[in-house]
Structure prediction request, 106 residues.
Amino acid sequence: MTRKILPLALLALAASTLVHAADIWRWTDRFGYTHCTQAVDIPERYRASAVPADAPLPPGTPACEVAWHRYAASQACFDAYRVVGGGLKPEAFQRCKELPEPEPCR
Prediction:
């Protein structure tokens, strides 16, 4: 019985690690810049104000800013799957949404 449980436990642990690797959070620094990063990359003083990257933006946010927030979150998700040499792990395309770079805001 133990021989059957151990592989299942290891598989569950590996799957949960993959899911959490792509958890992207949005936070704003003291200068007003918005960042999209993995939870482990959020500086301690900003963790309390961080929200999931897919959380709605404040009402009245211009469409151009919304597009750039979505793009930044997409890029941060892909960053979690980058390998040495600049390639991407294949599962990145299953877990992240690839978005084209938006036009600059005016």
Notes: The chain has one domain: 2-95.
